[in-house]
């Protein structure tokens, strides 16, 4: 049974808040952590910008590319082997997104892309079956850049996966910590390790496109004065030395990824997409033009009166000031028109759009909001997977 959620307002001065020009009020659904894996680090709730459904979460191990196991047991949601499925991700081979894809879809083929938009376009053009996007992290909050992308395109969320992100400081073989003058990595990774790097005396940080791309750059240019922040798997893949493990500023650093598919491919897959016995989760976006708090209360009331649990609730408010960008949403029902909204709510709820109660709640919300779009309905996976 799911525990009753509590609402928290996260610190608006978090890195996530400064990463966007919009005002963000994080109303977060926090589910108290009742089960902690002996291997999982303690949660530091004060700095959490996104709460994960940790009540049933436990750190999971992916054992050397074989059948994924959770603390030694086969995983509960039983990922189907996905040989032949092509998953587009942003970054070079060895990026966290690629590991997330291979964990979610064992045996899949991965397609490296320069940008997240390219990964989405690969699915739209039929070059890939899925795109994987990091959408929120315990340290960063919601990755609005990726939510924005999601909303501008007509792809459906078909799966979620949360990965424990352990950042390592990597260097060319034989390079000692004292020889390192600068650090390169994905801007998110650099932001997640800022304090630790400063403590190591490493103040020169330069962003590159992804963590594995940084490692590739070290390797191909034989950079002897530079270190990269990336995963231990990337170190193995590119043959680099690990100078330090776990350099993230918060010990509990989890990124949630969503896998997206084209609606046409889902129609072809039919009922096989949702095995009947699996608990489902639905992601939706609610857009409106004013009365933010009223709409928020209506959304909460529509779900709570029907006893439907929310696992995510994020409120985005763009003011009318010129430098604050509105949220653009593709209205899939109105011939794919792109519409701009100053106020948006991201909502994830437990259940499916086929549940009568959920349908009623959505109908009720639709009467207040200007646009309600269902982003996808998929198997809920509360586990956190660890690459070790
Ligand atoms: O650069 C990578 O390895 C990625 O997969 C991207 C990404 C991100 O964009 O958030 C994913 C997870 C990590 O938190 C850091 C970076």
UniProtKB/TrEMBL annotation:
GO biological process per UniProt: L-phenylalanine biosynthetic process
Protein's name according to its UniProt entry: Prephenate dehydratase domain-containing protein
Pathway: Amino-acid biosynthesis
MF terms (GO), sorted A to Z: arogenate dehydratase activity; prephenate dehydratase activity
PROSITE patterns per UniProt: PREPHENATE_DEHYDR_1, PREPHENATE_DEHYDR_3
InterPro entries according to UniProt: ACT-like_dom_sf (IPR045865), Preph_deHydtase (IPR001086), Preph_deHydtase_CS (IPR018528)
A GO cellular component entry from the record: chloroplast
Alphabetic keyword roster: Amino-acid biosynthesis, Aromatic amino acid biosynthesis, Lyase, Phenylalanine biosynthesis
Start and end residues of each Prephenate dehydratase domain: 86-262
CDD domains xrefs: ACT_CM-PDT, PBP2_Ct-PDT_like
């Amino acid at each position: 049974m799911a525990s009753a959620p509590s609402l928290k307002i996260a610190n608006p001065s978090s890195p996530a808040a400064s990463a966007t020009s919009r005002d963000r009020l994080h109303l977060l659904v926090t589910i108290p952590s009742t089960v902690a894996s002996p291997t999982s680090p303690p949660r530091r709730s004060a700095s959490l910008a996104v709460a994960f459904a940790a009540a049933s979460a436990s750190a999971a191990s992916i054992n050397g590319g074989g059948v994924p196991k959770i603390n030694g047991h086969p995983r509960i949601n039983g990922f189907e082997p996905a040989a032949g499925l092509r998953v587009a991700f942003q970054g070079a081979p060895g990026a966290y997104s690629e590991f997330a894809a291979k964990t979610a879809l064992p045996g899949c083929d991965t397609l490296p892309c320069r940008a997240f938009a390219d990964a989405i376009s690969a699915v739209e053009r039929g070059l890939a079956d899925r795109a994987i996007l990091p959408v929120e992290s315990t340290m960063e909050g919601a990755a609005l850049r990726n939510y924005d992308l999601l909303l501008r395109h007509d792809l459906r969320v078909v799966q979620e996966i949360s990965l424990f992100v352990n950042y390592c400081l990597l260097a060319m073989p034989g390079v000692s910590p004292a020889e390192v003058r600068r650090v390169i990595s994905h801007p998110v990774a650099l932001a997640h390790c800022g304090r630790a790097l400063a403590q190591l005396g490493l103040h020169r940080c330069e962003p590159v496109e992804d963590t594995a791309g940084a490692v590739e750059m070290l390797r191909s240019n034989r950079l002897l004065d530079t270190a990269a922040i990336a995963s231990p798997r990337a170190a193995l893949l590119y043959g680099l030395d690990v100078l330090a493990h776990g350099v993230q500023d918060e010990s509990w650093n989890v990124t949630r990824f969503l896998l997206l598919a084209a609606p046409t491919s889902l129609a072809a897959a039919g009922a096989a997409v949702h095995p009947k016995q699996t608990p489902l989760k639905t992601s939706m976006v609610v857009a409106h033009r004013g009365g933010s708090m009223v709409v928020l209360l209506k959304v909460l009331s529509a779900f709570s009166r029907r006893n439907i649990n929310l696992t995510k609730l994020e409120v985005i408010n763009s003011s009318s000031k010129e430098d604050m960008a509105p949220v653009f949403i593709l209205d899939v029902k109105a011939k794919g028109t792109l519409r701009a909204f100053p106020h948006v709510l991201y909502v994830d709820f437990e259940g499916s759009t086929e549940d009568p109660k959920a349908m009623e709640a959505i109908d009720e919300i639709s009467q207040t909001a200007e646009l309600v779009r269902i982003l996808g309905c998929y198997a809920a996976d509360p586990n956190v997977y660890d690459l070790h």
